[in-house]
Design a protein that fits this description.
Blueprint (H helix, E strand, L loop, with lengths): L1 H20 L12 H26 L14 H9 L8 H28 L5 H29 L3 H8 L8 H41 L5 H4 L3 H17 L1
Helix pairs in contact: 1-2, 3-4, 3-5, 4-5, 4-7, 5-7, 5-9, 7-9
């Protein structure tokens, strides 16, 4: 996308320069009158400055890192994760998290569409399913936020050094503690991603259960196997996070 934007700008600047400096268009000629020459030179210099500044902004300037606590929308989470794709040691986890985000967006849209097809928005059944969907989605993004908190303090060079056991200047006990720390770090990420995978699976099961039943009584919804599983998952995770 950055290359496309820059290419478009280059073509636009070239077109303007050709239009302005071509004989017979605006009468601007470098080497002609003093005013014409000054205008032509100024245009060329301004064009060069614009291209240089734009290339810096697009390719070299580091983007502002938004604090994790300010991340709110789906797009915010995707952008935040993409910022760490250069961390090779965590690339597998980051790619999986991005894939899960995309799947969550699709499943949520599909589930809401199923609910709209089956119920009126004012029905208690619709509100129950919608409420559970909201809670489980909130839990999903909470796990992504926890992953981002861990990634933001991850030191890849230290990690590679510890896992490569190259810190011979430290005692074996200290080295082992460092290894345990990073193993716990990776275990936490695996656990969070595993929980999110479980959430996505349960949403699939919920959609299947909804599509199978012909009618719903408000009291029957709470007894649906998938609803009980989702409720249990939410309660367990909230207890774990506290």
């Amino acid at each position: 996308m950055r290359y496309i934007k820059f290419s478009g700008l280059v073509l636009g600047v070239l077109a303007i320069n050709i239009l302005v400096l071509s004989p017979g268009f605006l009468g601007v000629e470098i080497g002609g009158s003093a005013l014409s020459t000054a205008f032509g030179v100024t245009l060329l210099v301004a064009s060069a400055i614009l291209l240089l500044y734009t290339s810096y902004v697009l390719f070299f300037k580091q983007p502002e890192v938004r604090p994790v606590k300010q991340i709110a929308t789906h797009e915010d989470y995707v952008e935040a994760l993409n910022r760490y794709k250069h961390v090779k040691s965590l690339e597998e986890y980051i790619n999986l998290a991005l894939e899960q985000l995309e799947r969550m967006l699709k499943k949520r849209a599909t589930l809401l569409n199923v609910l709209i097809q089956r119920f009126d928005a004012q029905e208690l059944s619709y509100k129950k399913f919608s409420s559970v969907t909201y809670e489980v989605e909130k839990l999903f993004y909470l796990n992504i936020k926890s992953i981002l908190n861990r990634i933001s303090v991850f030191d890849e060079s230290e990690f590679l050094s510890v896992m490569g056991k190259k810190q011979s200047k430290f005692s074996q006990e200290i080295l082992q503690e460092k290894m345990n720390l990073y193993n716990d770090y990776l275990s936490f990420m695996k656990s969070s991603l595993g929980t999110n995978e479980e959430i996505l699976l349960k949403l699939d099961k919920l959609m299947i259960e909804i599509s199978r039943l012909d009618s719903f009584e408000p009291g029957d919804i709470d007894n649906m196997p998938c609803m009980q599983e989702i409720d249990s998952l939410i309660k367990q995770t909230k207890l774990y996070k506290q």
